[in-house]
Amino acid sequence: QLMAFHYCEIMVINITICWNGAYLLVTFLSPNTNILSQSAGNLYKYIFILKDSSETTRDDTYYLFKKYYKIFYNNNLNNDWLNWFIGFSEGKGAILHFNNSCRFIINHTNYNILYLIQNYLGFGNVKIYKKNNNIIYGKYIVSNPKDCLLLYLLFNGNLKLTSRITQLYNWYNILKKLLNIDFNSINKEISLNDAWLSGFTDAVGSFSIKKYKYKNITYLKCIFIFNHKDEFILNKISQLLYTKNLGKLKNINDYRIEILCNNNEKYKIILNYYDKYNLKTSKLNAYNIFKVILTKVIGKQPLSIETIREIKILRKSMNKWLLLNRNIGYKSKS
């Protein structure tokens, strides 16, 4: 049997979906689509249209996402920002599912970045959690079916961490019951030519200044650090940034790479990248201080006592910004 809903306030997109042996011709963006909510059970309140799913093979891997985002929100999003967001999401977010529904969550102590994400994407909610009237952390939540679908289109084929691809596959198993969609299980390569690493750094990267003595003379090490439980992804980052200092952290299921920036070649690679693809959390302030410290250290050691004192003050300020991005939540949920 063929049915059609003709009323539409804005535009009409028609496709045919086979569901329970009947063909249902749906007029997308029609208020009448809520009539399908009971048939979908607790899964979704809407039917979403994905025609020409083969379009995901285009050179722009965000093409399908941007196409339907434009339909939903009549806006265009920047690829650099999307790359940053995916990197940040892979480091801090969680692609979850509950009772046949999708949910995306980011917990962060620097809650301002969550509002930035909400405002830029135009969807999702931010909840603030307090203790004794002090804000402890914020939570960005996406649970609306329409918006979860958009995130699926954004993430599919663009994720780099195997754990996130596995989480997204759970979404696929939910969405494929209603939609003709595909799933890309290939880990996308990390590159210094996009903003993914900047987002991942905002999530799990850090900076450190360490003192050590050699022949009773004080020297400083300027170190760029990544901590994460995905050994494979850290090895990939270490290859990009020319370091082999990958180690297992004691007592927790994380790995670490430490990039010693005292080497001219290494620090230039790092600065060239992050000056082009800016951090977006308060780690940007820490990074800018880190750069100032580098100018005082690189090629100038051993340092004077006065310079070491100046750097000590700068390090304290840098650490203050880093503390605003301390970890929150449970690793089992991320």
TrEMBL record:
This is Homing endonuclease LAGLIDADG domain-containing protein. SUPFAM superfamilies: Homing endonucleases. Residues 96-174, 197-293 form the Homing endonuclease LAGLIDADG domain. It comes from the Eukaryota. Gene3D superfamilies: Homing endonucleases. One of its GO terms (molecular function) is endonuclease activity. GO terms for cellular component: mitochondrion. Pfam families: LAGLIDADG_1. Keywords: Mitochondrion. The keyword Thylakoid does not apply.
